[in-house]
Write a structure and sequence with these properties.
With 100 residues, the protein is an alpha+beta fold. The protein has helices at residues 9-25, 28-47, and strands spanning 4-7, 53-54, 61-67, 70-77, 82-90. It has a single domain (4-91), classed as RelE-like (YaeB-like fold, 2-Layer Sandwich), CATH 3.30.2310. It is built from two helices and five strands; from the N terminus they run E-H-H-E-E-E-E. It has a five-stranded mixed β-sheet with strand order 1-5-4-3-2. The protein starts with a strand and ends in a 10-residue tail after the last strand.
């Protein structure tokens, strides 16, 4: 049995920001590839939530690279068997400017 994935408001917003960027600067093919990669990533995460790097700052929080430009931050809630997606971050952006 896999973990349930729950999207935070920030995760929804930052995912939308990534899609908007792709719509403005890339083609439908790249949007499809990105969303497919996110779906693959989330399906893997359901079965193996601890397989990605732990955050040094936040407890029970992990960071995984979806593509080299975008990572996801998520929190594992073991008691509720849930994974909370916190945010999708642009790896090219200054980490101090990313508030999550």
């Amino acid at each position: 049995m896999g973990f349930e994935i729950v999207w935070s408001k920030k995760a929804i917003q930052t995912f939308g920001d990534r899609i908007t960027y792709l719509e403005k600067n890339w083609t439908e093919k790249e949007i499809f590839n990105f969303t497919s990669r996110v779906n693959e990533y989330l399906n893997s995460l359901k079965d193996q939530p601890l397989m990605f790097r732990k955050s040094a700052k936040l407890k029970h929080t992990h960071i995984g690279v979806i593509i080299k430009q975008v990572s996801i931050i998520y929190r594992v809630k073991p008691r509720g068997v849930k994974i909370e997606l916190i945010a999708f971050i642009d790896n090219r952006q200054n980490p101090k400017k990313q508030n999550f």
